[in-house]
Sequence to fold (748 residues):
Amino acid sequence: MATPDVVDWDAIIRDPRFQALHRRKSLFLWGLMAISVFYYFLLPIGAAYYQDLFKIRVWGPINFGLVFALSEFIVAWAIALIYSRRASRDFDKMAAEIAAEFGLKTKGTGA
Amino acid sequence: MTPTTRKWSIIGACAAVPLVATPALAQAAGVEDKYRWLTFTIFAVVIGITMFVTYLAAKRVRSASDFYTAGGGVSGLQNGWAIAGDYLSAASFLGIAGLISLYGYDGFMYSVGWLVAYISVLLLIAEPCRNIGRYTLSDILAYRNDPKKVRIVGALSTITVSTFYLTAQMVGGGVLVKTLIGINYETSVVAVGVLMLLYVIFGGMVATTWVQIIKAVLLVAASIVIVVLVWAPYGFSLPGFLTDVVGDPRVQARVATLLGDPAKSMTAAELGQRFLEPGLYFKAPIDQISLGMALVFGTAGLPHILMRFFTVRTAVQARRSVVWAMIIIGGFYVMTLFLGFGAAHLVGSANIAGVDAGGNMAGPLLAQYIGGGPDSFLGNFMLAFVSAVAFATIVAVVAGLVLASASAMAHDLFVGVIRAGKETTARGQVVAARVATLIVGAMSIAIGIAAKGQNVAVLVGLAFAVAASANFPCVLLTLYWKRCNTGGIVTGMLVGTIAAVGLTLVSPNLTYPLAVKAAAHKVLDAAPAKRIAAVEATASADPAVAAKASKDVIALDKAVAKANADLTKWGNETTSFMGLEKPLFDLKNPGLISIPLGFLGVILGSLFMRDKRAEQMWNEVYARQNTGLLVSKSVAL
Fold:
């Protein structure tokens, strides 16, 4: 797998554009990840320990618990769409710029 | 078989996680005999289409890349449908609708974790894996580590996870097919196995992908039709629909059965509403949290799901695949709300549990009801169609699992370890892959037949637990932690797998003869008095009371017979399979403990066995996983 190649990976890592990509992407990814895990575990925790809240009826027989479970779907989809829009607007472009420059250099200096 | 000859019985005590059909099937719920030609016609059409696709695909399989990853030529949208087809196994397709029909709210809550799981896949795993991986999970792990060592542990873990999952699918599939079309269990297992082998051996990943896409489209289409028919009479009003569900005396009776004594002080309306409240299925909250962890982190470590990201060309397409998969899978789970509650209301929970204690027949029975019932042409057509979709589901999921195992065997163990350093031709690699597929497929048929009648439901949970405790920490840390190295991966894989399997072996999932015998004695002690009371009530002037009482007598006699059978079966045995009198560990799913242990294994292993090379290569891994540079190389190779 690890065939020797001529891309200067250390230079990419040092590149300020890569550093910027790394910072913005990490913060965004792990932030969204934390939100989604936190929001998901509210459901089983709520269902177990806050049953009185989950039983409150809000619309006909529909109770808060059911609304909350449905909101999990909305939140999951929203996170997917937010990430996907942000990635295709920002991260892809930044990565493509870096790849283009270092990929070109590879071709230029390669044997 | 006519409906009048069916003896409905409630086997409510059999509340094993109904991920797969429970073996205690009372009788076939299949299409009426005079309509069986219909079943065979629909099956023939579905199988015919998939065979035609396989025939087309077979011509395109020339290299290992074609066989394992469809040559990287799958689009994001196609891959999204294929992931949905791979993931919506019989477990989630039939199991969750069944769980909702039997336990109401808890069933729906259970489905949420299966969707949220894809967030970790989307954010952390899919794109980096596409950027640095090639065919298998171990390719990612081998990138900056000792390839031989990590390929061995990675392949073992892949085969372990896939075999657990596969066994559950084969046994569940065998029982389902037997129930739905009335052929015997062994024939069902062999039919599933042989069909799957034809797809995979000849068509490799191309055929597997298309079988999964076709199956997912059929599944979603069938579900939409049923949901529309169930919901339309209420003018698509959710409160209107649910008001009818909670007002149904059969739903109220089901809740009363589940609750036991506390139900006596509740009004009918309260009982009905209780069906929409948590706590009918999950008794110990910590179990639900532990299972949630295994689902949310385990999906990102399932080898057959990871493998799907190598079938697309770029990280952007990998991302699109997950987003599409989330839309399809989430949409399907929202529909299970209507399938499950609709079945509880229209078919009746007790009737569903009577056919299959795990509730797996909820969807098919609802389809039959919606079409006009067991005596109508349309009812039988709908049932036959849903049965064909269920069959296609099992075959498609099994195909994905076998392909993942075979790739670990052929690509990691044979080409990567046994023939390491030697040149293996493209043709040789494809031959190795096909031979490995044949071995894994034959094994899966043998395991399916050997495990007949076993309660294999626990195995799906275990597959997710091993994936979450072994594969997920290793993949995540090799992608995101500089210090991660060979020592860490080997330690983490072993610790995670041993912890997940070991804790399950000493958990309440196994049968403990002392507990079984104590329960049997309790039933037998209480039975005489209960029977006298029930027999007296059968003479009641109120026909409803009398009818209920005679049902109670039958149920009681059954319970007594079962208790006696249990006592005979367990005789003088006092310990479980592991030699324990009672569980050492209370959690049904080990995730809560084994996932942190797996992470700890990778971290400590890496720190104690420092490896300069892995750290030097970190820049390369990190730059590549973020930029996708040279990804064309890994696709082309």
About this structure: Chain A touches chain B through 56 residues (CB under 8 Å).
